[in-house]
Design goal:
This protein is of the alpha/beta class and 405 residues long. Helices cover 32% and strands 21% of the residues. It has three domains: 254 residues, 3-Layer(aba) Sandwich (Rossmann fold), CATH 3.40.50.150; 33 residues, no CATH class; 82 residues, no CATH class. The protein is built from 16 helices and 16 strands. The longest helix has 17 residues.
Length: 405
């Protein structure tokens, strides 16, 4: 059975036009959700750590519209961005996890939700003993533009002609360039909880590119969202209530992972996938899924006579650059790939045994390695062609006089 073609079959999951304005529909629905709790906006509580919820006020707890808990994958001292932070629940949970040395930035475009999140900042900072959270107004597909600053300029320079519209657009470009809301290559982790599906179809690829841009090398995205097993039907897509309810804009499961891959991520992994669907409409199942993906596989491929042995259990695996690893075989890799595989906090930690050459090749003497191929690494390349040593077992070797080897 072949996989559906991602360029054609995925159209509805990524780039289908709607007969209504998605951004207005979502903004209005979540403004109502900021005023009064709407139980139908997303999945039930996914099971947060009760100890991290204890300091949060009821208003924030009641107005949480998520489908997962990406905060559980965040650690001390990290700088984290939460896309579509809403009333701030995930941000305030992560504030406790990253601690005094960490930073949490919540991004949202909804003024009503931002007001809820911001009015509890001082009280929660006093309760925790430190203030490490801030909330900014922006579109999650345009993380460079601070909409509060853009709004200040617009208030002083109202748009009333084509010329003033052009001036506003020019100012927005200047803000992105000179005072970006979130800079490039600065964030340890980007998280989101049931928000990516709310973005306009035509902006979804830009959204993944922005997530990638702000992450530092080695950083990661941890995204919880609603996905579907088949493309939503036309009747689902044409229903604005289903879009603002996290249904019509849901990614098809395989397309969701492919979007990370196309943006340049590696080590893409499904951390959790709900067994039972949250909703089923027109025969299409919609469920919660949490995915983690890493940034940092760019760079030159250098030949330093290194290799790896894949431990298993799969007989053969292929990574995001097309390297094929056969269980138990010495496979040739470049210096960059070896470091990716052996990073103790990376996605492949513990899956391979590194093989470094007996005589290391200096970086400035290393030639190019062709990462388009997968090849066997001869032991003579790592040990050296003239290696003929004989080494006696150490006195504390595992086989003693009374042992059977």
């Amino acid at each position: 059975m072949t996989r559906p073609d991602l360029d054609t079959e995925a159209g509805r999951s990524v780039g289908t036009d709607t007969t209504y304005d998605v951004e207005t529909t979502v903004r209005d629905r979540y403004a109502r959700g900021a005023a009064t709790m709407e139980r139908g906006l997303c999945c039930p509580d996914p099971g947060y750590d009760p100890s991290l919820l204890a300091v949060l006020p009821d208003e924030i707890l009641e107005k949480d519209y998520g489908c997962g808990d990406p905060s559980k994958y965040i650690g001390p001292g990290e700088m984290v961005v939460d896309l579509g932070s809403g009333a701030g629940k995930i941000c305030y949970i992560m504030a406790q996890k990253v601690g005094r040395e960490g930073t949490v930035i919540g991004v949202d475009f909804n003024d009503a939700m931002l007001a809820v999140a911001r009015r509890h900042q001082r009280a929660l900072a006093e309760s925790l003993g430190y203030g490490n959270v801030r909330f900014v107004k922006g579109r999650i597909q345009d993380l460079a533009l601070d909409m509060d600053l853009a709004g200040d300029w617009l208030a002083a320079h109202p748009v009333d002609s084509v010329e003033t519209l052009a001036a506003f657009e020019s100012e927005c470009d200047r803000l992105r360039r000179d005072t970006p809301m979130i800079g490039s290559d600065v964030v340890d982790a980007v998280v989101s909880n049931c928000v990516l599906n709310l973005v306009r179809p035509e902006d979804k690829r830009l959204l993944f590119a922005e997530i990638y841009r702000v992450l530092r090398r080695g950083g990661r995205a941890v995204i919880s969202d609603i996905v579907c097993d088949e493309d939503p039907t036309p009747s689902i897509i044409d229903d604005p209530a289903l879009w603002s309810g996290c249904i019509a804009g849901a990614f098809r499961e395989d397309v969701f992972l492919t979007m990370f891959e196309e943006a340049g991520f590696h080590g893409i992994e499904i951390l959790s996938r709900a067994e039972a669907p949250w909703q089923t409409i027109d025969g299409v199942e919609f469920r919660s899924m949490t995915v983690r993906a890493f940034k940092g596989k760019e760079g030159p491929c250098l030949e330093r006579h290194q290799g790896v042995v894949y431990r298993g259990p799969w007989k053969t695996v292929t990574d995001d650059d097309g390297h094929v690893l056969h269980r138990g075989q010495r496979m040739a890799v470049c210096d960059k790939t070896l470091h990716l595989y052996t990073d103790v906090v990376g996605p492949y930690a513990g899956q391979v045994e590194p093989i470094n050459p007996r005589d290391p090749v200096p970086l400035d003497a290393a030639g190019a390695f062709d990462c388009r191929r997968s090849g066997y690494r001869s032991p003579r390349q790592t040990k050296g062609a003239d290696y003929h040593d004989s080494i006696e077992p150490a006195t504390d070797a595992c086989c003693g006089p009374e042992d059977c080897c």
